[in-house]
Amino acid sequence: MAESLIITRELTKVYRMESYTVAALNQVSVEIAAGEFVAVMGPSGSGKSTFMNLLGCLDSPTAGDYYLADDKVSELSGDALAAIRNRRIGFVFQNFNLLPRTSALENVELPLLYSHVAAAERRSRALAKLAAVGLAERAGHHPAQLSGGQQQRVAIARALVNDPVLILADEPTGALDTRTSFELMGLLQQLNRDGMTVVLVTHEHDVASFASRVVSFRDGRVVDDQQVAHPADAQAMLRSFERQAA
Ligand SMILES: Nc1ncnc2c1ncn2[C@@H]1O[C@H](COP(=O)(O)OP(=O)(O)OP(=O)(O)O)[C@@H](O)[C@H]1O
Ligand SMILES: [Mg+2]
Question: Which residue's alpha carbon is nearest to atom 12 within ligand 1?
Fold first, then answer.
């Protein structure tokens, strides 16, 4: 087994409201090895996004520990947490979260701006990532001039531009049709085969079937954790989908 990239120990997030408290995440202990492709499933409100936000250093736990590679992230805050978030983690969201009045290239460059990379290098690194997702020709297009699938690929190029150790995706296919979902999952599987660790939230069993492990949440706890012996091949499914459509 490869070395653990992620270790959570009794990770807990409690939201205190005026009249009640919610344990959005309740003592979750999970280990994820470098190179895994994990699907996170569970009903609405079960804690999936809370878990992802903690893994992504977007939020701090109420209790418990979180280690990312060699860093004990759960004891960091402020700038140290932001640095880990920006340099080591790539995010992909359901609604792409691209800046509308900005070209694909500039959207991909954005994380490099925050890490103070010089302009020429920003441009060349962003172009390389756009090429890696098959969008070199669309670098000058604004999001509105791109299809949903293309916008999500720009978001993936942006997620990759800092060469992160981890890609976190919360419902990345939620706004995409079936064919485009297969295309996106094929891209994530390709990145994973090249060594990227991927953790993805989905409601759809079809989408989860491309992962090599499925972790299921209920009421803030992990209730099931299964290795998938033979994950589906998204590129093969895309080809057969296109044959049927032809
Ligand atoms: N900022 C917050 N303040 C208060 N309660 C919150 C907050 N964020 C989440 N919660 C609560 O924590 C629980 C878990 O929410 P979470 O968003 O993690 O669920 P989820 O599994 O991602 O659901 P969905 O599938 O609908 O996206 C829910 O009961 C939710 O209402
Ligand atoms: Mg959610």
Answer: 24
